[in-house]
């Protein structure tokens, strides 16, 4: 009966059935021949080799629904000659190359055959290029070399009479296939199966290499390759290190490669593949066929190992894998049934191969040959990393998925690998997480990108810069709200009167003054009045529930609280000194002269509370220096000019209000406070922007999403007076960004800004206008740092990550907060000393990466913090609030996106008895701001636990 297919052959057969006509598994190789070639002898030699090896004259068919080998007694394989001598001599190689490109993508018919094609391109009477193209189902790399070795031996026998002396073949590939099937019934199979199931237990890791482009839905991919070499002295150092630990060169280079993947991904559970010849029986060593097998190499890189420690781990894993190499990887895939994303290979995405196939020995009589490079643009994996030992150093061939990676990215990967190898040889006892990975040139580039520019700030504090504008433009309108307007002189006078009152009440530098006021001109007066008195203001949003306001007041202990006369203040007022403000004329008896205080840039300017993981918000303390640094940087970078009219959109409890108010008032522009009804509809919003002649819009990203949709779908347009739109607070939607760039007035500049409250409002910005849209497809960019900000992208070991690799964003410079009020432990945890010797750095918890053009791309979070409508939310705070209710035992809160431009919170609850959603909803409304109350609640019997 016809022999069965081996497991490796079965996989290729089924793939061919799924996608007939694919050339994905073609194996082309070309050689350039120079000399007196006897073509007839070459043809006879080829036929002799074909007669010798059944696999070269095998096709495949189905019997009773199962694929089997059909071995032909004879199967002529003709060498097709293509004479190119009619073309100009200097064009023939290029023509041959182009024709070979077409040939190597020509599919094979597995049922018809033959599965070997040979073409001979005649360049002249003494120069040829020969192309062998075979389907992988009948051959592998070792077999290709064997075929050439035997072909040359038979050719030389025919031409010179020298005996070929080919070894006897005791078996054929069909015998191997039968043996493999029988082996599945043996104890040896069960022992190896037990090993592999134990090694692959649990959730199999997916390698998350940083990509230049998103992964497609199918695994077929365009490929490219990079050839590089490392010097002999480095190779010798690696070999010596390996010998000292009883490891082969393969194991040592593999360990370095695993260390590279760890440094690029941060993943401690790494699974890659490696190919083995799978010819550990003497009978198979001289046989042509598809023997190659893939071993799975899973390595634990936890507990910060040194390279020496990791080498011991990898050596053990490799030796165990080799001892269990008979298990076909196809059988493992069948048994493990791994869950994989579409567009990924079955078990792993990276293949590491240390090339040990025999050299293509032998020479054709009277003919010299050399390999002729051909480009076969296919990629079976994300990366296939070949390493080859040569006398003059290590040679590497890196095949990569060109749909995912740019050549420059792979080049950087190799350069980082070489630097890592140098570091390993120099300090093998150092933790791999600490070993230098980046060459000096890359470090220089990152150093240039980390700070765009350094600028000197004007002397004094922000309120003093405002006073300079008062002197320069006293009669110009400073602030407008509905029908109410104040000039710079009038605003300054009212703020001064309040400041003198506050000083009288004991306000001095670092005194905290609460502001419980609605959006109004009185609110702007109060902000400036507190700053002028030397105090720091604490925004108390009137929309916050009393429980949250009470906590903030107890934590911050303000000296005074200013509140609007018509606002109810549902907190315990006994311990508070509350000043109710009834109007602008309340403090008319006080001086209008700018007060002189001892406030300096080192004193507090304001405190803003953000969500906290413990269930309680935390107060971020911003000093005048940080505030001044941001205000000046924003005014210069955006820029804001005296001709602008800036819409004041945000609540002052959200630090975007700092961005709206102070760059405007320190540049002589006009601040226009929005009304509550302005945002009832988008049509009304745009009408008011036109009526009030707004030139600068500073909008939460979530609102901008809806604005963009309205502009595109409702036939609305921005008023021509709007020249600049600033967005920030959360990640911008890529589709909305594309719609804006393609369909909104190109004269309007769009700035996508990013920044944590702890680094004072905005740290980086990206010009996202139409003319810069070329990079939008890569993801949401947050651009480059504002003046005087330092930005670092570091890994968990505080080491710089390569360009294109994700790491945590750390921010330095004069814009940093003093820290968290009454939270020394958290301040020490998040504000750390810079390992680069230039002061403090704030650990943002945001994952970003530098793109090759120097822009930062936002990638996500390192923790459970999310942003909803621009507000930072720690999910743990909401979960803690939920479990405070008697009905709730456990709670999980997640953020989800019901639409591409909307983000909401969902709560999942478990209780002992009945959970009444209305009770839970009211409970949260009583203690949390509205933006932290989930949009949906689901009661579960138990929380699903992921493996």
List the helices and strands and how they pair.
Blueprint: H1 7-18, E1 26-35, H2 39-52, E2 58-63, E3 66-71, E4 79-83, H3 92-104, E5 116-124, E6 127-135, H4 141-160, H5 173-183, H6 187-199, E7 223-231, H7 232-244, H8 249-265, E8 269-276, E9 293-300, H9 307-323, H10 329-336, E10 350-354, E11 367-371, E12 383-390, E13 393-401, H11 407-426, H12 440-450, H13 462-472, E14 477-481, E15 484-487, H14 488-504, E16 512-516, H15 521-532, E17 536-539, H16 546-556, E18 560-564, E19 578-581, E20 604-610, E21 618-623, H17 624-637, E22 645-648, H18 656-665, E23 670-673, H19 682-691, E24 696-700, H20 701-713, E25 724-728, H21 734-743, E26 749-754, E27 764-767, E28 781-785, E29 790-794, E30 807-812, E31 819-820, H22 824-830, E32 831-833, E33 840-850, E34 856-861, E35 865-868, E36 871-874, H23 875-883, E37 890-899, E38 902-910, H24 917-927, E39 936-939
CA(first)-CA(last) distance: 46 Å
Q: Helix coverage percent of residues? A: 25-40%
CA-based shape: elongated
Percent range for β-strand residues: 15-25%
What's the level 1 CATH class of the largest domain? Alpha Beta
Q: What is the domain total for the residues? A: 4
Count the helices. How many? 24
Low-confidence sequence ranges:
773-778
The overall strand count is 39
What is the chains' assembly state?
single chain
What is the fourth-level CATH superfamily of the largest domain? ANL, N-terminal domain
CA gyration radius, whole angstroms = 36 Å
The major beta sheet can be summarized as: 10 strands, mixed
Structural class: alpha/beta
Return the CATH architecture of the largest domain: 3-Layer(aba) Sandwich
Kindly identify the CATH topology of the largest domain: Rossmann fold
Mean model confidence by pLDDT: 92
